[in-house]
Amino acid sequence: MATISHSHPVATTQQQPRFSVGRAIIWVLAAVGVFTIVWRLMYGMGGVSNMSNSVSWGFWIGEKLTGVFSGGAAFTLCAAIYIFGKEEFHKLVRPAVLTGLLCYISFILLLFFDLGRPERIWHLIIYWNIHSPLFEVGMCVMVYTTVLIFEFIPVMFEKFGWNKAVHAMHKITLPLMILGVLLSTLHQSSLGSLMLAEVGKVHPLWYTALIPPFFFITAITGGISFLILIETLRCHYYKQPFELDILSRLSKVVPWVLGLYLVAKFADLAYAGELNLLFTSGHYSVLWWTDLVIGTVIPLVLFAIPKIRTSAKGLRWAALFVFVGTSLMRFNVSLIGWKRPEGTHYTPHWMEIGMGVGIIAIMILVYDFIVRFFPVHPAEHEHH
Amino acid sequence: MATRYGMLIDLRKCVGCEACTVACKAENGVPLGHFRTRVETHETGTFPKVSMTFLPVLCNHCDAPDCVNVCPTGASIKREDGIVMVDREYCIGCTYCVTACTYGARYLDEEKKVVDKCNFCVHRVEQGVVPSCVNTCVADCRSFGDLNDPASAISKAIKQPGVVQVGNTSMYYRLPENFDRSMLPADYVGAAPLGVWQNLLQPAGKVLLGGVVLATAASLVANTVKKDGKEGESHD
Questions:
Q1: Does residue A334 fall inside a structural domain?
Q2: Residue A120 belongs to what domain range?
Q3: What is the tens place of the pLDDT at every residue in A10-44?
Q4: Does A129 sit within 8 Å of B92, measured CB to CB?
Q5: How distant is the alpha carbon of residue B236 from its chain centre?
Q6: How far is B66 from chain A (nearest CA, A)?
Q7: Cβ of B202 and A208 within 8 Å?
Q8: Scanning every residue of chain A, which has its alpha carbon at the shortest distance from the alpha carbon of B230?
Q9: What is the pTM of this model?
Q10: Overall number of domains in chain A
């Protein structure tokens, strides 16, 4: 065990990028992202968004919440390995941490450009209001992103052959991972408590004191699903073996969590005496059922059937359902499912979507760069 | 007793001229498209017995407002004298408070790029003068003053018949006969679940976090001391 093959840099097996339509599209989207960011900095938020005082949190808030749950696999895996001792998931730690890190960076970028005064973002660190959920989110995300960087940095050291640094980092791995898991637990749920302040605005179908735990547990399932999707794409594009066995074993927990979520959703509405709203709230009811059926009911069945869970195709479809449904749930709670004063209209400005999508495209390019030049793939660090 | 400012608007007197809106905009440099006080028009009754009532609205300066609670930088404050205001030097413009306000009293100032709102003209009040809207009202329907001082004009005015308080706030309205309570801004009810999470559960989580950080730090020190030869046990 002690003879970790760090003595020489691990070669990365990826080919150099070749031209493809997909790659060209990503570059164009990234360029749109850069353009909208420059535009936003020059002409302010009014220049790039349709937000107003009645809709002062628009498309970006939904995307931010989606981005954070997508990074959930990093803490889920670390909890499984370092707290519950499931060593078999080790192979996926690097891809999961990298995915998580990029998700969080996209969250931070979006938050940054969503502020009226982005240059004052450091006020969060200096001026504390400990009662504010947003303060908590800001602090946790800041610290957790730093933790993720520390978790990922040994990969870079390994590439450059800095073995002493790698060994030094290994010493703090365990506390670092546990710290990461705790910080995630805190802020995944405080992203939910962010919405607790919106009483009377978030439709009662979604507004409940249980939003924080709901956000937390769907971050587990959503994060695992997003990791499955990302691994699918990565293995497809870089022609590497898909770790079906490990991912299926990891997904075993998903139907349990989804089941818990499903029961809790109905129990919560029943407790509040609002079950009638399920059929009487017009398009809100439709949205509620859509996010629940797509994100919870269908994948609950798919993940629960071992035959589907252990087939690559079944696993990917199930993960796609969870991801789409959970994203819709985040958008519902933070944007679409709000009761607004009459006469309020909001359609995202094309530049809002352009920046949102552009930041994702930039993250994909960063991901591509890192995967090609650093030993991220499980097969490349077989020292366990 | 400490000062606690409040406002009474007598709807029986209001003529809907909107001079208060204009005076406020001029006094506070409120940018185009935003208002700290507006005058709503309500029609009541059925033909042929109809009437129109004007309802000036502004920030109600709630007793324990969520807009202050949710501000991440503490830029939104509730002063000792009851005034709820934004410190523009601290505000980062996240607009969380704008979404949290029940009454739509807050706006993002596109010029200063920070959130702003009615602050009872705190710069005037501190000089001992009433807010600009009160000063300018042609019908003298707005009164302003110290609710805790029984001798003040407002303390006497709120004892008149027909005066209704917007619950848990510093605002009072005197209703005309044809007007019913439901047309006024609703009583303030904060987001109770927010308090439960922020004041009970999350602090518990933070204590746990602190404990684990300490424990891991301790184990790290212990492991470092007896390191060498055991290094193979570390993971990445």
A1: yes
A2: 21-377
A3: 445 555 666 788 899 999 999 999 999 999 999 88
A4: no
A5: 49
A6: 7
A7: no
A8: A2
A9: 0.89
A10: 1
Phi, psi dihedrals of residue B119, rounded to the nearest 5°:
-125, 30
| Residue entry with tokens 């003040």 | B152
SS3 A161: coil
Q: Give the pLDDT confidence score for residue A16 in this predicted structure.
A: 63
**Taking Cα atoms as reference points, which of A203, A303, A297, A291 lies closest to residue A251?**
A303
Task: List, for residues A122-178, the tens digit of each pLDDT value.
Answer: 999 999 888 899 998 999 999 999 999 998 998 888 888 888 888 888 877 887 888
Q: Judge whether A218 lies within some domain.
A: yes
Question: Domain range spanning residue B21?
Answer: 5-183
Same domain, yes or no: B108 and B202: no
**Using an 8 Å Cβ cutoff, are A144 and A178 in contact?**
no
Nearest-Cα distance to chain A for B121, in Å, is 21
Interchain pair B98, A53: CB under 8 A:
yes
Number of domains in chain B: 2
Residues B204 and B177 in one domain: no
Interface membership of B234 toward A (CB under 8 Å): yes
Chain A nearest CA to B79, separation (Å): 15
> What sections of A83-206 are H helices per DSSP?
93-114, 123-126, 133-160, 163-171, 173-194
| Pair B218, B149 in one domain | no
Tens-digit pLDDT profile for residues B115-142: 999 999 999 999 999 999 999 999 999 9
- CA dist., res. A300 & res. A221, Å (int): 10
Task: CATH number of the domain at B25, please.
Answer: 3.30.70.20
Under an 8 A CB cutoff, do A129 and B191 touch? Answer: no
From A129, A170, A174, residue closest to B216, measured CB to CB:
A174
Considering Cα of B37, then B43, then B45, then B51, what sign does the dihedral take? positive
